[in-house]
Amino acid sequence: MDTICPIDRKCASQISVLLHPPPPPQVQEYFEELISSRQCRGIKVKQNGEFGKGVYADLDFKEGELILKDPILVGIQHPSNKIDCLVCSFCFQFIGSIELQIGRKLYLQSLGVSANEACDNEGSSKDFCDTNSADEEDDCYVKECKKLGNCASSSSSNGKVTLPEALVQSLMNGELVLPHSKTFCLPSAIACPGGCGEAYYCSKKCAEADWKSSHSLLCTGKRSEALSREALAKFIQHANDTNDIFLLAAKAISFTILRYRKLKAAHLKGQNKHTDPVELDCLELSLLLEAWKPLSIGYKRKWWECISLPDDVDCSDETAFRMEIRDLAFTSLQLLKAAIFDQECEPLFSLEIYGNIIGMFELNNLDLVVASPVEDYFLYIDALPYSEKRTAEEITQSLLDALGDGYSVCCQGTAFYPLQSCMNHSCCPNARAFKREQDKDGQATIVALRPISEGEEITISYIEEDLPFEERQALLADYGFRCRCAKCIEEETT
Ligand SMILES: [Zn+2]
Ligand SMILES: [Zn+2]
Ligand SMILES: [Zn+2]
Could you tell me where the DSSP H helices lie in 271-385? Predict the structure, then answer.
């Protein structure tokens, strides 16, 4: 396919350097640093020819033992899930209170159907918390809710009991305290310091970390460092309407730009003499490469080349389908470029790089899941001794009825985990991603499924491993490989 993006031609040589896998010693060094910073000394990443990389046990692990906690490099909560769960935009733990979680969700449910219609008149996103209202926090939630309500699926309010608006409001503003909710204390929600009214955090620490990592460029609020907040709003709207993977790609690009700026500032501080323009060009590329390193590690292919053909697309239309996907990515990239372009990081705005970043997420497909404390709360009430339960349920039962089956919806999104993404698949894995009771945020948690001895490769299953052989292989083809694990070799020959 010919390129349609002028930057692809202009920056061809820098792009090929960026997409060239880093030399093995550099990769090794990167992972060693990462592992030591995570204090999970029981593993190491090794490069192995045919399959690229693998994670190996450096110690013996017992069944059920924790192998790794892997923080998110970049991650997003699915926009549709924002209606169900209010979580920290950086670490993805639930925030606010049980009352706020329930009240906010009921409020959005009540907006459900009609809000969809209102959506058209309202135009695209404006800043809902923009108007000198930093002190009116309750109001801010309501506005945030209205905005989300615009995207609320109409099905969410079907067949459910609706509660009086005053009751819902009193849950949201903290006037009503539910029985036993203190057992499920959540960190209070801190609004984004940039004033977007969209991002909330569990702590100042998370707010600052997110700001430095990517949000300062992607915030739609007053203090945003984006070139154009209107352009940014258009980009976000386009991603919400088409594919939220673009939001994750935008985070990856912002993350790299901000790292680049930081590296450059540190470099310039360290030397006083004037650098000549040729040296400066080389310097900029080497700093960009360094900034890009965490993302350079992941296995990549262009999105429109690696995306699996949907069932409803005929094979004869495959080329047209792939062109359409490429054009969609190009549209998204142009919107993002208008919002956050940085001349010194120009190659990042090539379609080639954008396509490869999205393809990396597609091929690594790592789900972000955090269990809901609201579910735990209702289970706790249900398990109370009879008389206590009866008293509590006088208040909680109507809420549970109004929430319907959705009471237990967990936080869902997509994230890139640097170490987990190096773990290879097996249909008879020795480890799995499993959140224990104490794991309340978005980090990947990997535990041993059976005893693992030192030197053994640690494997997880990317799919439901109990499916029949052919179905497994078909699903794994979407990840771009044919499985040759012991189980598959055995089943293939029988
Ligand atoms: Zn947090
Ligand atoms: Zn913000
Ligand atoms: Zn297999």
Answer: 277-296, 303-306, 318-340, 351-364, 373-382
Confidence of residue 115 (pLDDT cuts 50, 70, 90): very low
Residue-number span of the structural domain to which 219 is assigned: 6-39+190-367
Cα 473 from Cα 479, distance rounded (Å)? 10
pLDDT tens for each residue of 39-71: 677 999 998 765 578 999 999 999 999 999 999
Residue 208: inside a domain: yes
Protein residues within 5 Å, CB atom, of ion ligand 2: 192, 194, 196, 199, 219, 221
Q: How far is the CA of 424 from the centre of ligand 3 (A)?
A: 11
Give the distance (Å) from ligand 1 centre to CA of residue 88.
Answer: 5
**Is position 154 within any domain?**
no
In a domain, 133, yes or no: no
Q: What is the pLDDT of residues 92-104, one digit of tens each?
A: 999 999 999 999 9
Residue 197 CA to ligand 2 centre (angstroms): 6
Count structural domains, the chain.
Answer: 1
Q: Which ligand is nearest to the CA of 468?
A: 3
- The pLDDT tens digits for 201-229 are 999 999 999 999 999 999 999 999 999 99
Ligand nearest to the CA of 229: 2
Residue 324 to residue 317: CA distance in whole angstroms: 11
pLDDT at 233: 97
Ligand 1: distance of its center to the CA of 128 in Å? Answer: 22
